[in-house]
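dumping this here so i dont lose it
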């Protein structure tokens, strides 16, 4: 009887233990489900800046000038993966559109709409309407110029040649704006200290007579500018000349210099006018052979890596009569 009672209490204890274990386990599971369900109700948001506005119109017939070209878009969704896909420019499907298909030439305030948006997302536009001007389209070909200039070069350098590829561009704009165009430029960023040939791609822009940009469509939109530069130089002989008063008993002087010519750098039009460089040798109080370092005085507008030369001065005694 005692053993039975002990066995009975033992099984009751075991049953109670497992009952409590199952209770706490079930309660813990319910808490996890509730948390996941609560988490599933979260709404994620992202704001995307500079989303381009697509203008839908007859591009063969009209030219459209829009007040703004991009807009910010606020996206929201419970689906984090779908939201991330639309936030990324590379995987984005939606677009912001201004539908101008049924408009004729004139100026209008038109609504913006979002197209091809994932059904799991909602979108809100930072700008809901834009102003556009629609005009009859005109096209012309223009020769290209560039803003490259010699102010960009290192001192002493000159532009030898500039080539642009392609040489011409097709401009599309309204008739009114077409008549404003004075030049079409391939614009490169301002630079300085250039001493080597270079090649760079630039954006094509049109300008009026006041240097103000004219809104146009360009085909192509970019061009390649190739620039060859050089440091013009010229070799000229040295002309040794006497300067000062001869010493007593000296009739004249002979000058010897190992440097017969030097190289000048400068603008080509300046170099063309220079045929030699005068070197003035001071002979004051020179009554015996010696060597002096003589600084060079270069013509205005040129430079040289040679700043001085060594001149040997040989006095010639007067003859007794």
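and the seq i came up w/
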């Amino acid at each position: 009887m005692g053993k039975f009672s002990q066995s009975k209490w033992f099984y009751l204890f075991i049953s109670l233990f497992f009952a409590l274990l199952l209770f706490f386990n079930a309660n813990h599971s319910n808490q996890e489900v509730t948390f996941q369900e609560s988490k599933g109700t979260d709404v994620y948001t992202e704001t995307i800046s500079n989303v381009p506005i697509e203008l839908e119109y007859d591009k063969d017939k009209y030219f459209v000038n829009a007040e703004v070209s991009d807009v910010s878009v606020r996206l929201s969704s419970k689906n984090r993966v779908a939201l991330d896909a639309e936030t990324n420019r590379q995987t984005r499907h939606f677009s912001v559109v201004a539908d101008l298909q049924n408009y004729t030439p004139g100026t209008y305030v038109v609504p913006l709409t979002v197209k091809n948006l994932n059904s799991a997302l909602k979108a809100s536009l930072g700008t809901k309407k834009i102003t556009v001007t629609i005009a009859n389209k005109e096209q012309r070909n223009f020769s290209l110029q560039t803003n490259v200039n010699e102010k960009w070069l290192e001192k002493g350098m000159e532009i030898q040649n500039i080539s642009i590829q392609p040489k011409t561009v097709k401009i599309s704009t309204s008739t009114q704006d077409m008549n404003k165009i004075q030049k079409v430029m391939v614009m490169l960023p301002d630079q300085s200290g250039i001493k080597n040939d270079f090649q760079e791609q630039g954006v094509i822009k049109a300008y009026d007579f006041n240097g103000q940009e004219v809104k146009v469509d360009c085909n192509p939109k970019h061009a390649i500018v190739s620039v060859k530069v050089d440091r013009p130089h010229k070799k000229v002989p040295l002309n040794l000349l006497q300067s000062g008063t001869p010493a007593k008993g000296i009739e004249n002087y002979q000058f010897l210099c190992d440097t017969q010519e030097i190289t000048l750098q400068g603008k080509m039009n300046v170099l063309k006018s220079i045929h030699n460089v005068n070197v003035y040798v001071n002979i004051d109080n020179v009554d015996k052979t010696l060597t002096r370092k003589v600084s060079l005085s270069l013509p205005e507008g040129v430079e040289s890596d040679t700043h001085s030369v060594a001149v040997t001065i040989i006095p010639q005694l007067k003859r007794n009569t």
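The first helix runs from residue 2 to 39.
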